[in-house]
Design a protein that fits this description.
The complex is a heterodimer of chains A (335) and B (266). Helices cover 77% and strands 1% of the residues of chain A. Chain A has 14 helices and 2 strands. Chain A starts with a helix and ends with a helix. Chain A is globular, with a radius of gyration of 21 Å. With 335 residues, chain A is mainly α. Chain A has a two-stranded antiparallel ribbon. Chain A has a single domain, classed as ABC transporter involved in vitamin B12 uptake, BtuC (Orthogonal Bundle). Chain B has 266 residues and is α/β, with parallel strands linked by helices. Chain B has a domain of 181 residues: 3-Layer(aba) Sandwich (Rossmann fold), CATH 3.40.50. In chain B, 32% of the residues lie in helices and 23% in strands. The chains are: A mainly alpha (335), B alpha/beta (266). The interface between A and B is medium-sized, with 24 and 30 residues. The complex binds adenosine-5'-triphosphate (ATP) and magnesium ion. The site of adenosine-5'-triphosphate has 11 residues of chain B, from strand 2 and helix 1.
Chain lengths: 335, 266
Amino acid sequence: MQSTRSTRAAQPRDGQTLGEFIARYGIFLVLIALVIVLTILTPIIRGEQFFLTVPNLIQVALQASINAIIAVGMTFVIVSAGIDLSVGSIVALAGVGAALVMRDTALGPVAGVGVALGIGALCGAFNGFLIARVKLPPFIATLGTMGIFRGIALVISEGRSIFGFDRTFVEIFSARIGDIPVAVIVAAGVALCGALVLRYTKFGKYTIAMGGSERTARLAGIPINRYKLGIYILSGLLTGIAAVLLLARLRSGDPTFGRLFELDAIAAAVMGGTSLSGGAGSIPGTIVGALIISLVRNALNIFNVPSYWQEVVIGGVIVLAVVLDQWRKRQSQRD
Amino acid sequence: MTTPSAHRDGQPPLLVVDHISKIFGAVTAIKDITFTINAGQVVALVGDNGAGKSTLVKIISGLFPPTSGRVLLNGAECHFTRPADALHAGIETVYQDLALIEQLDVADNVFLGRETTRFGWIGRLLGILDRDTMRAQTADALADLHIKIPAPTLAVSSMSGGQRQAVAIGRAITWGRKLLILDEPTAALGVEETEQVLQMIEKLRGTAMSQLVISHNMQHVHRISDKIVVLRQGWHVATLTTAETDPQEIVAYITGAKQQTPVAEG
Ligand SMILES: Nc1ncnc2c1ncn2[C@@H]1O[C@H](COP(=O)(O)OP(=O)(O)OP(=O)(O)O)[C@@H](O)[C@H]1O
Ligand SMILES: [Mg+2]
């Protein structure tokens, strides 16, 4: 160990210079820089420090939490060289389903959670079936189910918002422990588990292997189809968790919820270093990506930027993230 | 042609390829191939581009089934439906371009699909990787084979073509129990790396592990093999004993300038 470290220090490889350092940790630097810039700019522009306050930072974390949970699943999907465009529709379907069950039966919050997670997992399994068994490209399969799941949500809710369901459910999932919202705690737990699974388990390793070269992984005897199914079920299940939290926060289930959630989740993952071509990615990076998106939204609110312009800015951030991804890839190829 | 059931000392040959054909839609890739590999033998499979060598390899290693014919391992018929089945039976294959996953390190590649887990049954259930053990065993296994890799934690993407091929072959030797199949193992390699691979093949020759080697280099084929199977446009045109032939003659069979038996079928 000692000797390895000293040899590496003695002869630094050309690639391991500033360029590679930035390519690797750039996103963390961006997060820190963003916080510093906002801390300085807010009092100058608004005359008061609205940004660097505990309630506002908790708000940033809360705003990031739902996207972060979905983005953890999305990271697995993208690392496996797939994509899941249906997550936004799963949020709507799982939310509407859970709200209906809680409003129309006496089964209570446990049933609500069960239904949301069950619908999420089932939707994920359907995606996985189309991709692993029917062999549809993930982009096409989940583009299709994006419409299907949203359509089913509209059908079962008759296109209307569902109010008046279980109060306990809302209280539990919009509660705060100390000052920390339950949603943030759940997101932190999901992120921690996701990070451990991706780095230290067979499931994570096979996800990377599949994304690196599906054929090589298959030739090594890995049951690709089973793991693909598992990855899309994971994405659906985590999206179901996100739906529970959104349902509690908004106190209603609506078939139009979750629109463009897939974009935020993909953006968080890609910003955090997940390669769109598969084989590489990290959960901490994804979480930082989700925080950056939330910070940018927060800043635009603080500076009273109209919401239509916010879409433009967030879209620009996503494009920048993909440019960064390309650049990072060229950096590693040069190595 | 030789009969597949030609037993030697009552022992069935390690592998029997028995009248194998493979048809892809309108293309007949291989027609009626029959040969045997005895324990410890190195059999070379030669033929021009498109002769059907890789197709035959893929059948033996379980990628797809033959259209007709059988493969016997130790006298028992194989019914492989997936690569995992062949691996399980002790048949390891190194594919020229698909050997390793670039995004994983050396040890993760060597143990790909055969991971060691930690934390007892819980770890097995959750698939928690025991990387320390796998790295140590990788280092030992590669050292035994005289494969020089700086560390088992080295990323494959930063390795040379020769190093990758060495690791891929090392991996196959480590896990293989009966048959090692090498599809053009030296095609992408420089002079020194090629020599290294040839020496690995020679070192294994005569051990418990048999080898089936595909190559376009007749000097190499002549040097490493005991027996040569020649394919030509999917037909099995000759089976040669290496000691009784020379590179010129092998080439003559490949190009069709020479024929072993009158090709009744054609
Ligand atoms: N999956 C497939 N579908 C259709 N045709 C195929 C398929 N695989 C191989 N073939 C055809 O079968 C024939 C034999 O191909 P094969 O790859 O086995 O040749 P080869 O001897 O390995 O050639 P090379 O020396 O170039 O590697 C070729 O005509 C090829 O086009
Ligand atoms: Mg070939």
